[in-house]
Amino acid sequence: MEPPGEGGDMAAALRAAKRALREELRQRLRALGAAEKQRQSRLLSRKVISHPKYQESKRIAIFLSMPDEIQTEEIIKDIFKQGKECFIPRYKPHSNHMDMLKLSSAEDISSLTLTSWNILQPSDDDSAREEALAGGGLDLIFMPGLGFDKKGNRLGRGKGYYDAYLERCMKHPSGKPYTIALAFREQICESVPVAENDVQIDEILYEDH
Prior knowledge:
This protein is α/β, with parallel strands linked by helices. The protein contains 5 helices and 11 strands.
């Protein structure tokens, strides 16, 4: 419940603006054909693999793609090919809590369970995997999202998982990892409405950038 007064009105207006932009972006993504998504995903995979920040990073967190996101499969294969360590999200439902758990190989993905949200992730009772912040932290996080602007503002799906995780990263001795968002060019907006606690992304990669 928002307190009455100007602050509450501003928060309500921000929520409404985010909701409207999310719907517009979902429509844009629905209109994007499978071949075009694959073309942009391949192009971005090449950009990532040649990116200096990627090349110098040893511990990398990356999302397993949903159908309306840049496909990350090629990047994950390259992480293992280069001998880097790979971490993937495990989202806790009905909360904003997420852990980044270690993947042992690209083939390890086939052992993961499909959640009710249609996302592959380690099961809740999988306690054998290293959590990134329980070890050496992370050098780089690849961020998903629905929309982005060129100033580094991100519009997520409304749950706040990545913002909460980045706050935890900041308390880790290794500090905040470098963040790169992977986006279809159709996800780039003129301006993304943000609140003060929304974390900006260091860099957004898309076809024309």
